[in-house]
Amino acid sequence: MDIDELWTDLENWGRDPVLSELDALMWRTDRHPEGAWSGVILQLLDVVPEWERLRAAHEWFVEIVPRFAQRVVDPVLPVGPPMWEDDPSFDLDFHLRRISLPAPGTHRQLLEFAQTIGLTPLDRSRAPWEGYLVEGLEDGRAAYVMHAHHVFMDGLALARLHERVLNPTREPRADKPTPVRTPERRGPIDVAARQLGRQIADTPKALIKGGLALAKAAGHPRSTADYLSSLARVAGPPPKNPSKILRGGSRRMWRFGTMECEFGDLRSAAKAAGGTLNDAFVSALLGGLRRYCAANGEDLGDVPISMPVAMRAAHNAAGGNDFAAAYFLVPSGVDDPVERIRAMHERVKDVRSEPALGFLGAITPILNRTPSSVAAAILGSVGGAVLTTSSWPGISEDRYMAGARFERMFVFAPLPGTVLTSAMCTHCGVCCIAMNADGEVFKDLDLLWSSMQEGLDEILALGSVSRRH
């Protein structure tokens, strides 16, 4: 797909004015920082981009992707999901900022700035994002840090957006499309009226569809039994956390760390052990946690994980979110890295084949019709995972931001109901691994980051051994 086709494809990005039930649930249950649904995106650039050109690019961006100049409007009564409207007081200079790190401008200083931004709640009365051009990095480099709410997009949609809006060369393009659109304005009463109308129109259809599904299930007792058995596993109490060290704090003190490796190296390691890239990634994290706990006198057993399972293909990722949350025990108690990857592979395969995997998504509309405090409490009771992970394919070809090459992307997810989150995206042949750890739980962060790097190195070594043979 060439750049013109990518821009044409933007016509469908983020055009639905109504938040999906999943997005609505994340918006309504957001409790910063312990139950936050916002994250931080860190993009490393090879040089400092031109400020005026960067600002002009943002002006164009919010025209061609109007979602980023819109705010969320809740209905005055809980009759349906919130809706997007153009922010009548949108001010780009509020959302786009410029700062410089003090010398020497290390990667650790950059991460500390990013985690501070992430711990600062977004203004929910405005478009829920902020972007920072960070100058003063070592070797004349720069970074772009964005703090954004999850209702905008998941990782797949973020990668597809980068492909579409960033330049394929350092030079600016003069033929960028400029759409003409009508501003969208909605108030809480208007949103409630629209959603009430939707409910009246859609409820009979939903009842008929649900009745047909029940009738079909009743006609196949074995299928019904399988589904109920699966439902007990999917919707039952989450697995217990056996670790005394990896227990959640009450304040959720975000602390950021990063790792990276060549995509080909991690893929070779995964193949050598008979697993997928994601199996190898998660197994590396588990190896790091084993080392951290061992250094603190604990032999880590299998711990619970929360893992989003994408419910759409990459090419359909056009804003918003569409995933099912899976909770299950991962093989952190397995010391051998090969056996750990194989066990991880089998457990993920079992989870993905659960007939009731989408059950939590099915009851999301019900949660959305309860008071937000009740929905937040219910979601909090489902938590208790030690680790939350996600991974997705990023961009595969160079892209540029106002003349600066986009070299790395690290996405730091929040910590809802977990003590460590890690997201991995592939970026031009590099696996970029971002980690957000609860500083109230991990007292020795230097030990944690070195343990995680050793866990990754252990996995990568499997590929080296395979190639030697």
Write out key terms for the chains shown.
single chain, 469 residues, alpha+beta, six-stranded mixed sheet, 14 helices, globular
Structure in words:
This protein has 469 residues and is α+β, with helices and mostly antiparallel strands. It has 14 helices and 14 strands. The chain has helices at 3-9, 21-28, 51-64, 92-95, 107-118, 155-165, 188-218, 221-235, 263-273, 277-295, 337-352, 359-368, 372-382, 445-468; strands at 38-45, 70-73, 83-86, 96-100, 129-135, 142-149, 254-262, 303-310, 323-330, 387-393, 400-401, 404-412, 420-427, 430-438. Strand 4, helix 5 and strand 5 (129-135) form a beta-alpha-beta unit. Helix 2 crosses helix 12 and helix 10 packs across helix 11 (337-352).
Provide a compact summary of the structure:
Helix content is 41%, strand content 20%. With 469 residues, the chain is α+β, with helices and mostly antiparallel strands.
The total of helices stands at: 14
Bin the helical content: 40-55%
Which radius of gyration do the C-alpha atoms yield?
23 Å
The whole-number mean of residue pLDDT values reads 85
Q: H/E element string? A: HHEHEEHEHEEHHHEHHEEHHHEEEEEH
Helix-and-strand structural type:
alpha+beta
What's the number of extended β-strand segments? 14
Q: What best-fitting shape do the alpha-carbon axes yield?
A: globular
What is the secondary structure topology, with strand pairs?
Elements: H1 3-9, H2 21-28, E1 38-45, H3 51-64, E2 70-73, E3 83-86, H4 92-95, E4 96-100, H5 107-118, E5 129-135, E6 142-149, H6 155-165, H7 188-218, H8 221-235, E7 254-262, H9 263-273, H10 277-295, E8 303-310, E9 323-330, H11 337-352, H12 359-368, H13 372-382, E10 387-393, E11 400-401, E12 404-412, E13 420-427, E14 430-438, H14 445-468
Helix pairs in contact: 2-12, 9-10, 9-14, 10-11, 10-14
